[in-house]
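Researcher: Predict the fold of Sarcosine oxidase subunit gamma family protein.
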Amino acid sequence: MAEPYGESPLAARAEALADASAPGAVRLSEVAFTTQVTLRVDPKSPAAERIGTALGVMLPNQAGQVARTERLMVAWLGPDEWLLVAPEGETEQIETTLTDALGEEHGAVVDVSAHRTILQVSGPKAPELLAKGCALDLHRRSFGPDSCAQTLLARAGVLLLSRDVEPPSYWIFVRASFARYLADWLCDAAAEYREP
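Model: Structure tokens for Sarcosine oxidase subunit gamma family protein follow.
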């Protein structure tokens, strides 16, 4: 069965990412074809509460927070903006849920699934690797699980999301047009962790 968006932005880099991974240190891969929907709504409105109830998780209300259910992540992007991420094929269901809960209140629901892909960086050396191109303090005390930030990584605008502490695991949401550049940068930056 064909993928809904054709080839993933990093299909041509899959082997390079695997080869750049260093067992026991860092692993690089693409998480392709996820459902990604942005939501804009007044967080203090009745609609925001209805949306949280309908999703089974309340919208995060603090900068950099991520809320999760078993199949859904909701990342805080701004005071009235969130990114909802779910497995492939759930776009229509999420859009319907959000639109129904929004009702007649002012807001926006937009499918951005084809806009970005996700690079996963995991392993004990993942924070050290990312620190080579990112100014954020990635220590787990400052940027622990279920934290996110819009930042620069190797001069590319990304949404960085911390998923787990042991071993550290991050998702990097990057525009499709920058995906190959960032994948190549990560492969190069991970070279020191591979055995000669």
